[in-house]
Design a protein that fits this description.
It contains 10 helices and 8 strands. It is an alpha/beta fold. It has a single domain, classed as Arginase, Chain A. An 8-stranded parallel beta sheet has the order 2-1-3-8-7-4-5-6, with helices on both faces. Strand 7, helix 9 and strand 8 form a beta-alpha-beta unit. Helix 1 packs across helix 10 and helix 5 crosses helix 6. The radius of gyration is 17 Å and the shape is globular.
Length: 297
């Protein structure tokens, strides 16, 4: 059995705001240290993402604003907080982890992950929906540069990945399957990006299975980038759908990783959505993300 590298660094964290987007990775990392998962190895990313890498999918002006705060309207556009150098550093390092997971999975032909969140809503020239840098789109472009011919982004966050869809539109070799339970950031499906909104929990897993089964010629896919949001959970007040339980999300992870394994496709996964609330405490949220790691191992 090969090792599953999961990239994480305390540099991902920005504790001056309460958003789980910038803090929850610490709790998951602590859990893995206290209760290791067999074959899982937590690794430090090689470096932060660079402005040139950001500019693969974002405008040069926005890339500069993220790094320097030079255009405050753009730098603050993600909706999370007012820009600070520390916040920028956390997003640059978290996106660097996405890059490293993608390239590691592609290089080794084995799964890899990063404890990164706040990716799929970011647009070409502004942040959106708590997302600052679209590491999914950047990762896909870097995978193509590294030799991949076909990259599939599987987005199962509660919310639509309209930001990613806009950034990969017309780029040969990248496509997206997107199953959401919230209409936020919805978009019209195209041959390149398949979007489905599920409104009934009993339909959720069948729709995920069908979306994967309808993917043409999966053996030609070189890499899956999996946006493994756990916010569809019924206890997550930001996007959750009544009836979607912890066991259902664990089965969802099994569906995704089993499908990829059956077609010999490595998966690079990120945490994406999942938020504390009155019904979802830290222990439960950590377990949801641990389930993703366990199924990927």
């Amino acid at each position: 059995m090969s090792t599953l590298p999961v990239f994480y660094s305390p540099k991902y964290l920005y504790a001056k705001i309460t958003s789980d987007t910038t803090t929850k990775a610490a709790a998951v990392a602590a859990s893995l240290e206290a209760q290791p998962i067999q074959y899982v190895q937590v690794r430090e990313p090689s470096r932060a993402i660079t402005a040139n890498e950001i500019a693969l999918v974002h405008s040069p002006e926005y890339a500069k604003a993220i790094a320097t705060g030079s255009n405050r309207a753009l730098a603050d556009s993600n909706g999370l907080c007012t820009w600070t150098p520390e916040f920028a550093s956390s997003r640059l390092w978290a996106t660097g982890g996405v890059r490293d997971a993608v390239l590691e999975a592609l290089r080794t032909r084995s799964n890899a992950g990063s404890m990164s969140s706040g990716l799929h809503h970011a647009r070409y020239d502004y942040g959106n929906g708590y997302c600052t840098i679209n590491g999914l789109a950047i990762g896909a472009r870097l995978a193509l540069t590294a030799g991949a011919k076909r990259v599939l982004i599987v987005d199962l966050d509660a919310h639509g990945g309209g930001g990613t869809a806009s950034l990969i539109a017309g780029v040969p070799g990248i496509e997206q399957i997107d199953v959401s339970v919230s209409s936020y950031d919805a978009y019209v499906s195209t041959p390149q990006c398949s979007y489905t909104l599920v409104s009934t929990a009993s339909d959720y897993l069948p729709v995920v299975r069908t979306a994967l089964a309808q993917c043409a010629d999966p053996e030609s896919i070189d890499l899956v980038i999996y946006n493994a949001g756990v916010d569809p959970h019924q206890d997550c007040t930001t996007g959750g759908l009544r009836g979607i339980t912890t066991e259902m999300l664990k089965e969802r992870e099994n569906i995704v990783f089993s499908w990829a394994k059956a077609h010999n496709i490595p998966v690079a996964f990120v945490f994406a959505g999942g938020y504390l609330g009155p019904k979802l405490d830290e222990e439960a949220l950590v377990q949801l993300h641990r389930n993703t790691i366990e199924q990927g191992a």
